[in-house]
Specification:
CATH class: Alpha Beta
Order of helices and strands: EEHHHEEEHEHEE
Number of domains: 1
Largest sheet: 8 strands, mixed
CATH architecture: 3-Layer(aba) Sandwich
């Protein structure tokens, strides 16, 4: 199985598997991004990080061994500034799925998310993945701009409500061939 490293880094960041003692801290960071729920129609998951740590955020027939939740830290201070959850091998063995990426709002617009993804893409190529996917709420314009700018600009599908309305939601699955 081709799994990304437990610990890896960029120029300014260290990305490491979540430790149990960090669950509450990382859950607070996750909850900071609850504004996304107005775009995707979901409710805030008060157990998201714990669930990811214990059983994973899995696709149909997925296994915990192929899932990762990692924290993103500033190298200099070791301060946790982000979360990355991923799945290795869905829907095909050579596909890498980015479930969730969030950077602390205090660190937005500093290029940290781009830095993480640029290095992650390098690792995925070394591991011989052939594509990377991310699912984004259609109303989440900042995320759509972010992912398409990084090269995830092919649309695999649109899922969700069929009719547009203020209370309708849909997601778009973006793909990048590696």
């Amino acid at each position: 199985m081709k799994i990304i490293p437990m610990s890896w880094g960029t120029n300014r960041l260290t990305i490491e598997d979540l430790n149990e003692e960090e669950i509450q801290t990382v859950q607070k960071l996750y909850e900071q991004g609850d504004y996304i729920n107005k775009w995707d129609g979901r409710n805030l998951d008060k157990e998201y990080v714990y669930r990811c740590f214990t059983v994973g955020d899995l696709p149909p027939n997925g296994t915990k061994e192929q899932f990762k939740i990692q924290v993103i830290r500033m190298k200099a201070s070791r301060l946790i500034v982000g979360i990355l959850t991923t799945y290795h091998g869905y829907p095909k063995p050579e596909t890498f799925y980015i479930n969730y990426l969030y950077i602390d709002k205090e660190y937005h617009k500093q290029g940290l998310g781009q830095e993480v993804i640029h290095d992650l893409l390098r690792i995925l190529k070394e591991k011989h993945y052939t594509e990377v996917r991310a699912n984004v709420a259609i109303k989440n314009w900042p995320a759509l701009r972010f992912w398409t700018k990084l090269g995830l600009n092919s649309i695999n599908g649109i899922y969700g409500d069929k009719e547009h309305s203020m209370n309708a939601y849909a997601e778009i699955e973006l793909i990048m061939e590696l």
